Every structure is written in structure tokens, then in C-alpha cells.
What we know:
Blueprint lengths: L2 H17 L5 H12 L3 H8 L9 H14 L3 H22 L11 H13 L3 H14 L5 H12 L3 H14 L4 H13 L3 H15 L12 H5 L60 H13 L5 H17 L7 H5 L5
Helix pairs in contact: 1-2, 2-3, 3-4, 4-5, 4-6, 5-6, 6-7, 7-8, 8-9, 9-10, 10-11
Amino acid sequence: MLASEDEPRLRELKEAARLEPNWYDPAFALGETYASRNDCNSALPWLARVPKANQRYVEAAFAIGVCRLQMNQPDKAQEIYTALQDSLRERTKRDSGAAVLGGADPPEVLNNLAIALARQGNMPAAIANLRRATDMDPDEDDYPFNLGLLSLRTGEFANAAGFFREATEREPDSPEDRAFLIQALERAGKKTEADEEREAAAEALGPNALPAVRIETKAEANKGDVAKTEPAKADALSLLERLKTDLDVAPLRLEIASTSVPAKMPGTSSAGFCFRRVVEETPATRIRRGRQELSIGRPGWRRRGVSRRARQRSSECRGPSGTCRSCTAAGKSR
Length: 334
């Protein structure tokens, strides 16, 4: 959205929220806009208006957790993400997978929950959540990278090198991933491997492509400074944590009807919109969704469910004359 268009839209959304207090799309859109500006103080009250029963709740709660972490309030972020997991679990039980796939464990939620736990000093729980996120999303390098950071903070350099190596395998073009792998190998006493990785990085990315990184363990960071022993205090490595600010709702199978950013269909009046979120099927999302289903004990759902749901959506959206049936029922044309 262009900055010049932002303020008039915000005024319109605020007026819509005032006139229709039980219509939560404007509140969500306001919170999302303020959050995108990194204005969490303005975003939080709007996002908090979205109730659990609303289809936007998952995204709103996720964004609230992001703001809490950005404001260095890990205890509140943990509370939000734990409640979000509980809500997703309830939806899974209630809908038997029709609306939400993957249960309570989207990897983005697990990642951010792990960051909140780590900032409070609960390393075992943080590592467990990050391992699950790493297994669920086989293409994302942020999760093994964050695992590497946690290992560095506790001085486990060999383990850290293993995690950073996995991150580089997932994202070979990331200079930061390669730089941390090299530093972890050196701190682990594996100079030969570090030199080999440095040469490989120079060949793949070019000379001087690697950023300068400095590894400091938690004990080194706290040395001579009692105040830094508080878990919520940010150390040098915590500043490098890769926080997920966007939640991929496609694997959750949320079909969200939204009027916050409407797209008008050709040949219709302003009252005749038909909204539908298209869920893109890719190999990565199918693998991730399959692993989520296995984790909650439904190994056969993905095989039998995706095509059935796709056919059902297609038949529900289009009537025999090409009109949208849900819109027709409301007296609207496509």
C-alpha cells in the first residue's frame, strides 16, 4: 500500500469499526497495518478485539505474539502462543480437520514460542519446539539457524556447527548461515573444516561475501555483568534470532472471507463481492502438511482429503451459470 493511501484507509477502517463493532475485519486490518509499521502500541488494541470464534483470530493472535517479542515481553508472548496452540487444537477436534490442518503446531508458532522460552532461560523447551519446527518445514533455514544460536549460547559449538550446516544445505546462498557455520567450526576446534567451508563460500558467493560475525556464549556475555544474568535481557546472539513475522495460513487450510482488502469482480456492484482465498498447493506445503498430520495421528487424511476439499470448494463456489453459490444465497451475483 502506498503511504499516501494509508491514512485515508485507516480513517475509513476506524469508522467502519466504530459503526459495526461486531464486525472484526476492520479491527484486524487496522492491527495488521500498524504492526507492519512496527507500531505495536497502536496495533495491539486492534488485534486484541478479534475473538477466538473469528476466522482471523489465528493471524491476529500470531501478530500479537510477534509484537510482544519485539517489545521484549517473552512471558506475554509465551502466553499468547500457548493459547493459540490450544485454540488450534480445539478447532482440530471440533472440525475433524475440515477447517484446520496440522493441529496446534504451525512451525512459525513453534519458532516464535521457542524464542520466547529461550529468552526466559528455558532452553530445553525452546530446543524441543525448534526441532519440531525444523522437522515440519524441510525447506526453511531459519529453524536450524535458531537451533545453532541456542547451542552457541550454551557453548555447544559442535552441535551448533551441525545446525548451521543444515541451514546452509537448505539455503546455500545465505552468507550469514555460512559465516556462522565457519565460526562454530573454529570454536569447536575444527580448523580444517572451517577453512574448507570458507573456500567453498568464496567460490559459491564470491570473495568478501561473508559478513563479520562474533560468537559470544551466554557465560562470556554475563562475565563481569550481573545484570545480564536475567533471562529476558538481550545478549549479542539473541539479537540475531530469526523471528517469524508472517504466518503461512495455507497449510492450516483456513478459507478466510475478508473485506479488509476487497477485490471487486468485473461487472458487479460494490455490494456484490465474492471473497475466496486460494490455497496454493506446492510440494513443500504438502510435505509440511503431511508431517503435521502424522504428528496428530491422521496419516491418511492428506491423501484422501485434499482433492475432495478442492472439488468441494469448486462446486460450492460456482453454480451452473457460473455464479458464486454463497453469494447467490445472499442475493448477490458474481
